[in-house]
Write a structure and sequence with these properties.
Number of strands: 8
Largest sheet: 5 strands, antiparallel
Structural class: alpha+beta
Number of helices: 3
CATH architecture of the largest domain: 2-Layer Sandwich
CATH topology of the largest domain: GMP Synthetase, Chain A, domain 3
Strand order of the largest sheet: 7-6-5-4-8
Helix content: 10-25%
Number of domains: 2
Distance between the termini: 46 Å
Order of helices and strands: HEEHEHEEEEE
Shape: elongated
Radius of gyration: 18 Å
CATH class of the largest domain: Alpha Beta
């Protein structure tokens, strides 16, 4: 089990105890720092700054009492997945069916690798989308990334 998996397994019950759900986790290098980042959400609505602070504090306490020490220091961050969140899990595809998304593909379809479209569903490893009244299906292994679409209007 790698470092991220181990700490995610430890953090998950803490996140749930704080009334949140884990949307995603990552362990990345940003500049000179290693960042352990947990994206949390609430099923009933938006995650507040206070929620993120509470989850961070609770996870920090647990991590501080662990027997193993990471190879190098890291910064712990807890954040909301944001308005243009990445959809990665099957539960995300079900929850956000009917939503507008930004889709990036590995291989072009109709000479296009990027689409803004509606996610219709996901079944048996195949996504269904709709754009401009046209329905199309894409196998999961051709999907590089799906984000919720957010239209920045001023």
């Amino acid at each position: 089990m790698n470092f991220l998996d181990k700490l995610t397994e430890i953090a998950l019950p803490v996140i749930e105890r704080c009334g949140c759900e884990l949307a995603d986790a990552e362990y990345v290098k940003e500049g000179a720092d290693k960042i352990l980042r947990f994206y949390v959400e609430k099923p009933q609505g938006a995650v507040s700054l206070e929620d993120c602070v509470n989850v961070n504090r609770e996870i920090s306490e647990v991590i501080d009492n662990l027997d193993f020490v990471p190879e190098e220091p890291f910064v712990l961050e807890v954040s909301s997945p944001g308005v243009n969140r990445v959809l990665k899990k099957e539960k995300d595809y079900v929850r956000f069916a009917g939503s507008e998304v930004d889709l990036s593909l590995y291989s072009a379809v109709d000479n296009q690798k990027k689409f803004s479209c509606k996610l219709l569903g996901y079944e048996n490893g195949v996504f269904s989308f709709e754009t401009e009244g046209r329905r199309f299906e894409i196998p999961k292994d051709n999907v590089a990334k799906i984000n919720l679409h957010f239209d920045f209007k001023f």
